[in-house]
Every structure is written in structure tokens, then in C-alpha cells.
Task: structure prediction
Amino acid sequence: MEKRVAEILAVPSIDRERHQELVEKKDKNVELSRQEKLQLEKSWMELFYREPVSRDLIVSDDEGRLRERIRLFDEMLVDKRKGVRESRASLRENWIKHPINNVAVIGMLLEIAGVYRRKDETFELSNVIRSKALAPFAATCKTRKALIERVLDIEIRRDVSTKPVTQLNGFLKLIGLKAPKVGTLKQTDGTTVNEYRIDEAGYQWMVHFVEVRRRKPDNPLKRKKV
Result:
């Protein structure tokens, strides 16, 4: 990891024209040099994150995995930009009726779990999650197992009924979120129940990336001077 980070930081950034040249070479199955591969990877990160790469960003990127999580999270997060919300409305309604893609399936599962509202694309950050209340979520995971595994490429646990929070965290991870334990509830019979909640700091971190990308939609790579 450290070697890769150092190599990416060391190579110079490239302009739009050079970026496109390398993309076309790769598409034509022309072997890129080590430096060209690193430059292309660096420029993809600069394009996506809309900022110069740093060591922390390269590590967080996790070889592109974070980018995929941000893309999914972006599609699930309400977008109030003029025209965008309206254009997504019909898609959202269709996904609610027919959850056949990854965003729709994740949204369906999180809504059943009580941490997301599909209709207005918002997350329920204040909602406390308890295993017993996730019975409908676990049941859905079982009855729609084939669909979920095919669309999300994630395995439904055999113990989903007894460990639904673990399964829920597996789905949240796909969009860069998690629901850690936040406390315990003592019941009248003396037993305790673990309580979980979506981590707000992690949520805000993902929101930051989405907002930066929405504010800066244009290609940030500098054009070659002529």
C-alpha cells in the first residue's frame, strides 16, 4: 500500500488531453507503462474527488472501492438542485414498485430496517436499531434472497434472523455507512438489548464527497496550454 501511495503521489498530474490519450490506449488494449498506469489512476481520482490527491485520499479511496460507494450513496441522497429532483422522481417511484437495480434494492432493505425513506431519499440518523425490530428486515432478506444476492453480489447470512444487524451493516457498507452499537436498553425482566444507530460522522463524511461533486460538476483537469 505505502509503495503504491508514494508512486501515485510522485507522478505528475496530467491534463485532459493526456488523460483521454491514455484512456484510448487502454481501450485499444495497448499496454501502458507503469508511469502511465499511475498517471491514469491519479487523474481518475482527481476527476472523481474534484481535488488534488493526497496520501489520506489515496488510502481512503481503497483502490476505487470508496468511489463506488460514493456513487451509490449519491443516488440515494436527496438532490435539491434545480431540475435534478424532478427528473429523479419518476425513477424513484418506479424503483419503489420494482426494485431491480442496486440502488433500488438497497433502498428497499434500508427502508424496511427503518433507517431510510425512499420516497424523499433521506436517512433516519436518529432512529435506534434493535435486533427484535429488524424481524421484517430479516424476513425480507430470506424471501428475496435470490434477488438480493444477484443484484448486490452479497451473501445473505444463514443467521440473518439471529444477527440481523450484522446483515444490515453489510448493506450499509455498500454505500459507505455503518451502524455501530451506541448503548444498551435494560428491560423489565432484567435482560439488556443492544442498540445501534447509523454513525453520523461517517454519514457526514460521505455527504461531504457528494456535495463537493455536485458543486463542481465540471472536469477539474487543466487543459493543455496552447
Remarks:
- The chain has a mean pLDDT of 89.
- The chain has two domains: 2-63, 82-209.
